[in-house]
Design a protein that fits this description.
This protein is about 60% helix and about 0% strand. The chain has about 220 residues and is an all-alpha fold. It folds into two domains: about 5-105; about 125-215, no CATH class. The longest helix has 21 residues, at about 5-25. Residues about 110-120 have low confidence and may be disordered.
Length: about 220
């Protein structure tokens, strides 16, 4: 892995974490002290400064290589642009949506062909991975609390929302994640890992209790 790719992974994780923090104010039980404009500005500043340190020109781009680095670089550019103070709300939302589509394409999801990536079989979109991560967190949360009623409700919701509608299939999904997961998000092979810390916070502190709360 190149030094540029390492730095892009680091900044990309910060972008996704900030996205989760912003969602805290949108849930069933919004934060009493939602993330302030000052905090958002500070974190965007950190992301922007780290991004400036990435020497994308150091890569040999003339050989048509380093597609992953270029796509990640472009995705982060879209994320930063969404928070430029002089842009309209519609422009900001469009850039956030573009960021999500680019992340989706990077992982071989449904938008890969449109945005120049390589679609991988029936690869799920980023939003589908997010919802699966939410199901995983809820499964673990209610399992620890021995809440059978909530677990049964989760299974019912999962059947409709993510197409995983039996206890056995949900358990298998969790097991597959656990085998690929690394707490260092830049090294994890599970596409669910990057979403989990933010989702855990939404469940524990912001009233997200049903899978449909994340849709």
């Amino acid at each position: 892995m190149t030094e540029v790719l390492n730095k892009l992974n680091e900044v990309g994780v910060l972008c996704l974490k900030l996205t989760h923090k912003i969602r805290q104010a949108e849930g069933p039980k919004p934060a009493q002290s939602p993330i302030s404009e000052q905090v958002i500005s500070s974190q965007i500043g950190q992301i922007r400064n780290l991004f400036k340190e990435i020497d994308i020109a150091s890569l040999n781009l003339s050989e048509g290589e380093h597609r992953e680095e270029l796509m990640k670089y472009s995705a982060i550019q879209s994320f930063i642009a969404a928070f430029e103070g002089n842009e309209s709300e519609a422009y900001a939302r469009a850039n956030l949506d573009l960021f999500g589509l680019q992340v989706d394409a990077l992982h071989g999801g449904p938008t890969a062909k449109t945005l120049g990536g390589r679609k991988i079989g029936k690869k799920l979109s980023v939003q589908q991975h997010y919802l699966r991560a939410a199901a995983l967190v809820l499964w673990t949360y209610y399992g620890k609390n021995n809440d059978e009623d909530r677990l049964n409700q989760l299974i019912t919701d999962a059947r409709t929302i993510i197409g995983v509608g039996t206890k056995e299939k949900l358990a298998k999904m969790v097991d597959n994640h656990d085998q690929d997961h690394d707490f260092d998000l830049t090294k994890s092979k599970s596409p669910l890992s990057v979403h989990i810390p933010g989702i855990e916070d939404l469940v524990k502190h912001h009233g997200y209790r049903r899978l449909k709360d994340f849709t």
